[in-house]
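Hi R.,

As promised on Friday, here is the backbone we talked about, encoded as structure tokens. Could you run it through your design pipeline when you get a chance and send me back a sequence?
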């Protein structure tokens, strides 16, 4: 390649350019041997590390990142995808290819999987199959989690706590801030010390007094109910945006009805927060915290 090349990392679980839980992109004008050599300049926040947990949102975010590069007049773009290569994973990748319409696709899949994938994509696309290098070993789950922890530590090494009035910031997807008030039957409420209940994105979210280690999902009275404890947002990885443009990520330190405190290395002013589904402890050990009601992609 000659000139500028946009590099997009579409693997939110093993993101070499940016923070886990994001789709990241940068621009290079010289050769490189590793994606880690690319400086992240553009991100879209997913808030998940497992692509199967939000495949549609992941595809849409990758398309947004590519569009942002195109708007910067970057003419050549290379996309690295994730390692979800089950039949469902390949179908979602085919949907992505049909969405972004690349000039050609380089497949490192095993031959059978590559044949399956070829049947799912638009026949006008050029698919180049390359035999996987025998020396490339698949990382174990423990290795992947350790690498993510190191990424978080590096990213937040020079972070600070930013405190903002709740009136200064817009939450994109907070069930109790963005949801509509809803009443619960006496049977559902019995035995629970309910602080508030909201209808949000097809689910009934109920905050109860006291802490819960994980969200509790209940099907009752024709409703999908999600129980969350006090201070459930603490430790959540969040996307920070100015308007509709993501600038970086942070971790919620505290959230009250008056103030939100976010730990972030970001120096730019942000005015929007999107909650993710990853929790980080003080030393950046990671835990999945799937609080959203899942739809079938």
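Update: got your reply. Pasting your designed sequence below so it's all in one thread:
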């Amino acid at each position: 390649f000659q000139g500028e090349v946009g590099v997009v990392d579409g693997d939110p679980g093993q993101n070499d350019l940016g923070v886990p839980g994001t789709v990241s992109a940068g621009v290079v004008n010289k050769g490189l041997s590793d994606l880690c050599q690319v400086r992240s300049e553009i991100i879209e926040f997913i808030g998940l590390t497992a692509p199967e947990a939000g495949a549609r949102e992941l595809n849409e975010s990758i398309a947004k990142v590519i569009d942002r590069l195109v708007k910067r007049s970057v003419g050549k773009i290379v996309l690295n995808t994730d390692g979800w290569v089950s039949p469902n994973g390949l179908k979602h990748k085919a949907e992505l290819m049909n969405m972004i319409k690349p000039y050609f696709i380089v497949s490192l899949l095993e031959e059978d999987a590559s044949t399956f994938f070829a049947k799912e994509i638009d026949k006008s696309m050029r698919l180049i199959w390359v035999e996987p290098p025998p020396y490339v070993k698949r990382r174990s789950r423990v290795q992947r989690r350790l690498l993510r922890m190191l990424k978080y530590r590096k990213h937040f090494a020079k972070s600070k706590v930013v405190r903002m009035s709740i009136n200064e910031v817009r939450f994109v997807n907070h069930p109790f801030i963005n949801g509509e008030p809803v009443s619960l039957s006496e049977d559902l409420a019995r035995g629970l010390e309910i602080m508030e209940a909201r209808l949000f994105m097809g689910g009934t979210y109920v905050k109860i007094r006291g802490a819960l280690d994980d969200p509790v999902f209940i099907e009752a009275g024709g409703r999908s109910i999600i129980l969350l404890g006090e201070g459930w947002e603490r430790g959540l990885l969040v996307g920070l945006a100015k308007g509709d443009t993501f600038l970086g990520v942070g971790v919620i330190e505290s959230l009250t009805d008056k103030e939100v405190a976010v730990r972030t290395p970001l120096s730019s002013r942000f005015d929007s927060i999107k909650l993710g589904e990853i929790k980080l402890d003080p030393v950046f050990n990671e835990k999945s915290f799937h609080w959203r009601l899942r739809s079938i992609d």
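One thing I noticed while checking it: The mean pLDDT is 92.

Thanks again,
M.
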